[in-house]
Specification:
This protein has 255 residues and is an alpha/beta fold. It has 2 domains: 164 residues, Rossmann fold; 79 residues, no CATH class. 35% of the residues lie in helices and 24% in strands. The chain contains 9 helices and 10 strands. It has a 6-stranded mixed sheet, with helices on both faces. A 4-stranded antiparallel sheet has the order 2-1-4-5, with helices on one face.
Length: 255
Amino acid sequence: MSSSLETRDLTVRFGGHVAVNAVSCAFHAGSLTSIVGPNGAGKTTLFNLISGQLRATAGEVLLHGEDITQESAPRRSLRGIGRAFQLTNLFPHLTVLENVRLAVQARARVGLNMWSTWGSHRELIGRAEEVLETVALAARASVIASALPHGDQRKLEVAVLMALEPDVFMFDEPTAGMSIDEVPVILDLIRALKARRDKTILLVEHKMDIVRELSDRIIVLHNGTLVTDGEPAAVIASPIVQQAYLGVEMPASEH
């Protein structure tokens, strides 16, 4: 199976500190891979390297076999890498609908001027409204993004990501800061994306019940190094995850 996304010896150093250390990993369409590890393991840094927010010190990022290591984050987004951030990343002074319709407009390659002739692009507005229905935000279409509660801002960010229709979806702690009542909406959206079997999905998530349920595969980072990669049951049961990530003390014979 050919990979849609691949890293080869991907590395970044900050001074003398190696934050991501020669990570090589291939990701495939139709699969959801969770990236786990203790705080400071390099999970979000790896996401930043893949999506282009950080430039690699060494190594490569390939998308559909093409080297995109030197390309900017906006260029990678246009190529099909979609990223939802740990902290919301919206246009705070635009309405909910305007945030999503700009993403739809960018996906349709009709420019990013939101004051252009939208009357002639009703189908694009309709698509934006459909996406808002999907994330249960249609009733808040006219609300300014910065006025939304945190949970709704997270839902809006996922809506923007969906409107861009990327090949690769990257979710960095998508349920962070959400109430128990709000979490199911986001998880249902990720489940629906996974069920399509045509998207590559990467997930950074601390909640192991979510990781267990959603993952086809788990990779574990520790001190910036990829230490385990495999099926969820085997990875979660491995000593390094039990100790370093879950904080479980293993019997002396397993050290």
